[in-house]
Amino acid sequence: MNVQLFIPCFVDQLFPETAFNMVKVLEKLGCNVMYNSDQTCCGQPAFNAGYHDECKSVATKFVKDFHTFDYIVAPSGSCSGFVRNYYSKLFDNSAAHNEVKLLKKNLYEFTEFLVDVLHVTDLGATLNGVGTYHDACGALRECGIKQGPRKLLENVKGLELREMNDCEVCCGFGGTFSVKFEPISMGMGEQKVNNAVASGADYLISTDLSCLMHLDGYIRKHGTNIKIMHIADVLASGW
């Protein structure tokens, strides 16, 4: 099976090890993994800031870069959800309509691809400790991802999965929201971290590094004893 990687901007620039771990997992499952180095942003930051024309220019390049019949897999529910749910609006009644339709059909968030396409829930991973899972808004609300990541984590040897209070509540990042409404954003981040710590977790795990980056900022500033981990990093552990 051929798989094209879609690596979001912040993963490429700040968390490349997660992308490599995603490749490690996919190759273990027999996938032929490919990466188009011409790819750039999907356009979500510009769209969310109200710059829809600028977003469409970036999105047009994205559609061209990912014009493929292969599966496209990304370590982000936020970016995957944006492309799948908003590109049809950006390119409504345009010549790119069919290309966008194909793109939406082939694009999957990482855990969604493992569980729903490859039908795999046990990667043979090992991570000793207690973990708690944060439902990122992009994954949960834009992609409908809820049980898949939990099934994967439940099969990680040595990892005890505990639910924290308000696991579905936003962490407060929201892209430019965290800049424009910093006090509210930080208050939401504090609440999320406190709930994770109260669960007794050693690891705060999610599908989205945008959320985890925001939460890790609070954790580092306050010296909180918990570690963030993207689920790809968890699933690549111990083998």
From TrEMBL:
InterPro entries: Cys_rich_dom. GO terms for molecular function: oxidoreductase activity. GO terms for cellular component: cytosol. Residues 3-82, 132-216 form the Cysteine-rich domain. Coiled coil: none annotated. PANTHER family: LACTATE UTILIZATION PROTEIN A, UNCHARACTERIZED PROTEIN YKGE. This is L-lactate dehydrogenase complex protein LldE. It comes from Chitinophaga dinghuensis. The lineage of its organism: Bacteria, Pseudomonadati, Bacteroidota, Chitinophagia, Chitinophagales.
